[in-house]
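Morning - iron/sulfur cluster inputs below, output right after.
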Amino acid sequence: MGKTLLRKVWDAHTVRRLPTGQTQLFIGLHLVHEVTSPQAFDALRAGGWRVRFPGRTFATVDHIAPTRDTARPFADVLAEEMMAALERNCRDFGVPLWPLGDPRQGIVHVIGPELGLTQPGMTIACGDSHTSTHGAFGAVAFGIGTSQVRDVLASQCLALEPLKVRRIDVEGELAPGVYAKDVILAIIQRLGVKGGVGYAYEYGGSAIDRLSMDERMTICNMSIEGGARVGYVNPDDTTFAYLHGREFAPRGDAFARATAWWKSMGSDADAAYDHRVTLDAASLEPIVTWGLHPGQSIGVSARVPSPADVPADERPAVTDALEFMGFAPGAPIAGTRIDVAFIGSCTNSRLSDLREAARLVRGQRLAPHVTGLVVPGSRAVSAAAEREGLDEVFRAAGFEWRGAGCSMCLGMNPDKLEGRQVCASSSNRNFRGRQGSPTGRTLLMSPAMVAAAALAGEVVDVRRARARAERAGAQ
Ligand code: SF4
């Protein structure tokens, strides 16, 4: 019987089995940011420890990064304290830091891959839930808390529970206007936000095979929203082509040797899985969340649920979500008025996301009542987009073109919703208060859907907006 990638990576990184039943796993790459690291570094100081492998540890600033005025000290005293602590800690412990202003700065899950730090067969840890993003490369990547950040800094190891593996095959072709974001929202809708607890999700099938690395990252990014501890795609030629020539990827003969090893780490054809699920890609339509977690979603042509139509045990949550979001039971999601359009976050802020949104926006104007923000995931994405003139396309349409960071994905920087504003967002979480206002409302969708909603001033079907843009382009 063959092995899954998870099993191979796990075995290759096992230091020892612990009496608790956990495995002590060596971590190949540790990515650090300003929010979850200060207490961890303090613990190292208190214990008289050093960072065990500074060469495997890299830091950047993203969560608190202002995307407009980056002058120091930051207006937000707490943000300034976190930034200063990260600078001090990286200096004292010999950890490379890419601060604001550095061409390599950006959201931690965007810069790891684009610098070639993220590689197949690795174990990766970062003090952020969406570390699963790096699984797109065939890495096993764990989001961890502050005490585990301390453990990895001090020992380069984590104590982890064993995981089962669920193979999720997405077969067939996605229709135009249906994107990776819709695939992962559909998976979470079907399996539930807790369906992945205790599992690693292995994504495959013909639709996944055809996806670019950017798209695979979008899928793996939201594995955690389905409850899975990690998510991954087996490495293939798309993966190797992406990595070739990147700053931290192996070079010359070493790249060929690495590729052979990376290939060997993929799941065997006869690998056994604990559970298997198959989705039909052609049956998917653009998806929008209507509720308070990413599993509360529907196709853009559908209606929000009515409490009377759901099982009794789901009724309180559905009623609560409908009330908070201001939806009448059974109302269509299309036509929902929006106030803010946010294109960004580690889920959907890469160059291909911005290109697709710009294709729709070109030559159009934002609806007058909508505030639109485009926030590239990294300085490198920003520079590449600017070389293509995408910034001008967005600006001409009335969007604000901002500096790299997490921005409106969460309320830890100046980009926040106000009051009961409704935000069409390409981010990954629609929890109450996530975007900075306790009463703000978030509708998750693909970046192209956000762009279409920004122009219309309400939720619309991007498939129709694309068709219009194509007709206009042909004239
Ligand atoms: S963009 Fe959002 S999910 Fe991603 S690292 Fe930043 S805060 Fe976390």
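Note: The chain has a mean pLDDT of 97.

O.
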